[in-house]
Design brief:
Elements: H1 2-13, H2 16-65, H3 67-72, H4 75-84, E1 91-98, E2 104-109, E3 126-129, E4 133-141, E5 147-156, H5 158-209, H6 224-259, E6 262-267, E7 273-274, H7 279-285, H8 295-299, H9 308-320, H10 328-332, E8 338-341, E9 349-360, E10 363-373, H11 375-404, H12 407-427, E11 433-434, H13 436-455, H14 459-479, E12 484-485, H15 488-515, H16 530-540, H17 546-555, E13 557-558, H18 559-576, E14 581-586, E15 591-592, H19 594-615, H20 619-624, E16 631-638, E17 645-650, H21 657-666, H22 676-679, H23 700-710, E18 713-720, E19 724-731, H24 732-746
Parallel strand pairs: 14-16
Antiparallel strand pairs: 1-2, 1-5, 3-4, 4-5, 6-7, 6-10, 8-9, 9-10, 11-12, 13-15, 16-17, 17-19, 18-19
Amino acid sequence: MDEHKMNRSLFRISSLGIKLALATVAVLSLVSLLLYEQLTTRERQHLISSKSRAANMVSDLFAGSLAAPLDFGDSEAVDTELGNLRSNAEIVDAWVWSQDSSDPVARLRKNDDASPVMSRPPEREGTLVFEDRVQVVRSVVGRQGKPIGKAVLVFSLAGENASFHASRARILWLTIAMDALTAMILILIARHQIIRPLAKVAEGTRRLQKGDYDTRVDVRSDDEVGQLATAFNAMGAAIADREQRLDAARKNLRDLFDHMRQAIFAFGRDGKIVGEVSRQATRLFGLDSLEGKDVRELLYRNAAAHDVDAKAFDEWVTIAFDVPVADWNEVASLAPSEVSVRTSGEEPVPLELEFRPLTKEGWVHGIMVLATDVSEQRHLARTVQSREEEHARQMAAMRRLVAGGPQVFVMFVEGARQRISRCLEIVGPVARMLSSAEIDELFRHVHTIKGEAKAFDLRDLEAQTSKLEEELDELRWRARGAGFATTSSVHSGLLAHLNRSTEALDRGCDVFVAASPIGRTALDQVTVQRSDILQLLSLVGERTDALGQIASRLASRPLGESTANLLDLVPTWAEQVGKRARLHVEGREVRVPPNLARVLGGVLTHLIRNAIVHGIEVPDARHAAGKSAVGAIRVHAAEGNTGPTITVDDDGQGLDLAQIAERAVAIGEDVASRSVQELAFLPGLSTARRPGDMAGRGVGLHAVRSDLASVGYAVDVASKPGEYTRFFLRPRSIQSETALHSTHGHA
């Protein structure tokens, strides 16, 4: 076992060149062995084959010469023929039998050990090859063409075996020489192409390990080794760049902690601070050095003797140093998460605390404290909350204003813009002498805007105009009837206040538009009586000229009016069926013709409720499909020459076409002549399992198509399983053109 481990260790520490050389020699040796075996086998087969052919020729001639002696029973002639074979050194034994005798008629034996004694003639003719001889059996044919005897000749393979051994030796040495030469060539190529480049890479790696980040490997090739060297050089450059950035990061780390208002220090079992601390720690606690200070005194400065939090911290410290590291998370959860530190003459500073264990042999031997000053975050959070409350208050005020009549606000905006424009005209593009009358006029305009902004609860605009009013009041005092020459700084200040007031007014308009269900169209509306509009339409009739178009636009209503109540209802409807959904409206300002506006509210209600029940999946199914838990239903409107085109889609599971076809068959409809999408609009067809408050009666889509048809509109549907269902509401003229183009395309 030890020897095996030692061999493995030696192989593990051997260089790649040695391993490659050994592998090359081993492979070539195996190949050479197989080649040697093949060559020697073929050489022997060649020698035996040549010997066999010569033996067969001699045997055939000998058998032919015995035909007459055996036919006439002339034994002396047989002996004479055998005697003629003595001159052939290759023949070591010969036998002759007559057809009627089992004993040989004659035999020629040059060597007693040449071949074994034959008690009877062989039954079959042929050639038998042995290790040291070749035996040929031939029948002797008489005059009548019948066998009259047999002859057996035995030929020695001594010469062939000697030639074979000599050839085998030559093949062996030739194979060894070729093996050595090939191994040397391969090893030299591997050393030049692989070993040396890899050695350069290894040397570069060692230099890189020692910190020489500028080291590079010079390997000029496009093979894998060259690619490895290129990758190494790229890695070295990346490491050098990373180390530079790490050095810069380490240098800036302390400053970073300070900018984050984070104090870092550590204390031991006795509660005394030890080791290095961040500069922010000394600044935060107002001390030049924290070494040896008691952590309790720092965190609970000026605490009463019986302060509950301070005593609880003392108890926690005692416990924290007596637990193994594995239990630290449980103990850390009991530590204080926040304290307020008060320095002399300053407000308390809120600190978020985080405790990290410093371990040794599995036990806590020190605790690191990360104290983060969160005063700015708290101030920011309060500011954000205040602004959110202010925005919510403004939105509520604007909604009340929208509900009560937006024209009042629109008139205020127009008046305020005119007043600001007049103020800019008075101030002028360059500094000049302002008369007392001009300053008084500026003051009146600004004071009026401020009062109206207060009435509409536009606090931002009120604050800007209030500042401008104070500056103008000071200019009034300076003018004293003789006027005032504005300096460049005063002139710039007046322009800046007026521009900021314009921006505040724009922000107020944006809030108003966001609160209005019809969007920016609310800024362009006036109040007219419905009876007047109807009378105007009756007078215009079917006219399509400019007057007819204006009358139609006056009677049209913005899309936002039809979707205003749906925005709040969609989440409620979705919750009723265990789902989550939101409605998004695009094109709130698009004008909807009066006839379409009359039915559009009901149409959108049907389609949206249908999307909630049949399209949007439950949150778990949406999560499994990689979708957001909240389904999205979108209503999009676009202007058109003959009327708006409205799209209603959802990102749900799409139409279940198979189930729609199945339900259509169940209610007796012919599904062969209609598309599955068309079947969805059949009366009485519903894919809901049971009727409910939201859907399931088979009325919704049929009602949608009927209502739209009554006002000259058509509805189509497209769907993709698992992704969307989309309804298109178009004027019938557009649908006809679309169908015509589709027909031409198929043609």
